[in-house]
Design brief:
The structure is a homodimer. By secondary structure, the first copy, chain A, is mainly α. The first copy, chain A, contains 15 helices and 2 strands.
């Protein structure tokens, strides 16, 4: 999918520019940039931009929100990798932020990305109405905050060493990864000017996509190679983590993954979208190897 | 100053309510609330509300911004106290957040307060125009982010074990504590509808107040009692930190403190303010014992 690479390039440039122009301590900027440019797939901002396109509007309208979203995703990875959290040494095949810059700077780089994200959203959305900018800002804060992603990380901590039911696992993933993915699509729909019906259907689509994404992640931890996933294979098993394959069997997880992909595609078919990018992204999530 | 106690009470109630209504993991809410209700002076939000009053508008207009500001101040204390940062066991005479809830939850509670602050600002400012809400949100993000408070914390880290000049020390404090204090007063002026001249003078006032606040802090670390300041006396000396008394002598620091207070009061005299609260707060900063 050539468009993935093209969009990633545009986003990479915007993100680098946003950090470069900061009047901030050099080490802090380096730490922020290190994780931002660590080869992420840019899935969330690409979903956002592709949703705008699917509704029939110019993607560039969503650039400020897309950048903010990627900064928040990146901050969450930096804090997640800290010794007190997951204590990971590698991320995408490179040493984690705190391994390179030290724990204190890694904490601050995460804080800085989270805070700067809100400024970037507001300052880089000149073409959007004030009402929409406020709506996007508060929705992003909610999706990322205690009722969203951070809440999910806390649930994940609480669940350590416990046997989870499939519903509990789903609930944690809904918060921890689902909320930001759903925000990406909802924000794209709002910026694109989707109808209420389109908005609601796209939110349902996002739920299926988020679950599919997580199940695929769990499967990759078993079937992927270290080269592909950028960290040791089988770490979930080694850490005794509840995963879809563990709770449903590997085949059960694959069936559930296919089921969510089918439902996501069915929703897309039912909408009169202006581009096939969301469909392509759905297939990409099914087939991705990293 | 009875009004300090009254305003603190109103703010305490609003902050507690804001946490209570969250649909979030109980442990996360407890950790957020623990530090928010740890007996802080609420100096920043009180400055904000008092500035609105001084301009002649209703303080309640600024409640959303005041709460957001206190949440961001509180998150910064939680992260500052972490083992990887200042490694403090006590804050205001009570065990620090990570001592009670563990490091992982303390990191998340800080992240949650920072993120939720932006939602609170936007959702609790119904009476303000959309333009003003956006302006306050981006100004708060800038004051707290890599070009502001977080940048100052990084500079502070970089300065560890180094002998600083007085200008370097000032520059660090300007970012680390000055930017949020200045935001408090600037936000109050904007919400109150200050003229450009009033706004600029109040920003100059805020600079002096911020420096006075920090110098008083350094002096208290020498002359205060452990009961008053809630942590061991002399910890700056023990940690070999650059402080105003160390660089200027204790008497020199006191003279500089008085000088900033005088200049702050002179600015206030020159403005036709509707209340004497800012003057009272300036005296409070000079005389405070905690």
């Amino acid at each position: 999918m050539a468009f993935l690479g093209e969009k990633k390039k545009v986003l990479d440039t915007q993100l680098t520019k946003a950090i470069e122009k900061l009047h901030a301590p050099q080490k802090l900027k380096e730490a922020m940039n290190y994780s931002l440019s660590a080869g992420g797939k840019r899935l969330r901002p690409i979903l956002l931009l592709s949703t705008i396109e699917a509704i029939g509007e110019q993607e560039s309208l969503g650039m400020g929100t897309a950048i903010a979203l990627e900064m928040i995703h990146t901050y969450s990875l930096i804090h997640d990798d800290l010794p007190a959290m997951d204590n990971d040494d590698l991320r995408r095949g490179r040493p984690t932020n705190h391994k390179v810059f030290g724990e204190a700077t890694a904490i601050l780089a995460g804080d800085a990305l989270l805070t700067y994200a809100f400024e970037c959203l507001i300052m880089n959305s000149e073409q959007l109405s004030e009402t929409l900018k406020l709506n996007l800002t508060s929705k992003l804060a909610r999706a990322a905050g205690p009722e969203g992603m951070v809440g999910g990380q806390q649930e994940d901590l609480n669940a350590e060493g416990k046997e989870l039911s499939i519903d509990q696992l789903k609930a944690i993933h809904h918060l921890k990864t689902g909320r930001l993915l759903t925000f990406a699509i909802e924000a794209g729909a709002l910026i694109g000017g989707a109808s209420t019906k389109e908005l609601n259907e796209l939110k349902r689509f996002a739920e299926h996509l988020g679950l599919a994404f997580q199940i695929r992640d769990d499967i990759l931890d078993i079937e992927g190679t270290e080269d592909e996933i950028g960290k040791p294979v089988g770490s979930d098993e080694a850490n005794n983590k509840s995963t879809y394959p563990k709770l449903l069997s590997l085949q059960g997880a694959k069936d559930t993954l296919n089921d969510h992909i089918d439902q996501a595609l069915t929703i897309l078919e039912s909408l009169n979208l202006k581009s096939s990018r969301l469909k392509q992204l759905t297939h990409y999530i099914l087939d991705r190897t990293n």
